[in-house]
Each structure stands twice: as structure tokens, then as C-alpha cells.
Amino acid sequence: MEYWIVDPLRYWVETYQRKKNKFEKFQRKDKTGNLISSVLSDFSITLEKMFSA
């Protein structure tokens, strides 16, 4: 599967989204990191705007 070589940005975004989803599941157990998770979600929204533009 050489797909990620052809489309590295999409591969990176999908990998980032998977990591973010795992991180959000972890955050539900630990509320002390709410600032970090909100910064991450803001960052992902910014990325989505960049790639959809």
C-alpha cells in the first residue's frame, strides 16, 4: 500500500485524526487536560479549513 507516498498530506491528517481520537478518549477519563484538548481541537479545525480551502 504505497498510497501515503502519493498523498502524504492526507495520510498525515488521517494519522493525526486517529491520534486525536485516541487522545480525546483518554481525556474523558482525565479532565485536568481540558486546555490541551481544546487547543488540539482548535488546531484540527484550522487544519480542516486549510485543506478544504
Task: Give a verbal description of the structure.
The chain is mostly helical. The chain has one domain (2-51). Helix 2 (8-29) packs antiparallel against helix 3. The protein has three helices and no strands.
In whole angstroms, the N-to-C terminal distance is 28 Å
Strand segment tally: 0
Q: Percent of residues in beta strands?
A: under 5%
Radius of gyration: 13 Å
- H/E series: HHH
The dominant shape is flat
Structural class, by secondary structure, is mainly alpha
> What is the residue-mean pLDDT, rounded to a whole number?
73
Number of domains: 1
Q: pLDDT under 50 segments (min length 5)?
A: none
Largest sheet: none
Please tally the helical runs, counting DSSP H or I stretches of 4 or more residues.
3
Helicity level = over 70%
List keywords for this structure.
flat; 53 residues; mainly alpha
Task: Give a quick precis of the structure.
By secondary structure, the protein is mainly α. The protein has one domain.
Blueprint (SSEs and pairs):
Elements lengths: L2 H4 L1 H22 L4 H19 L1
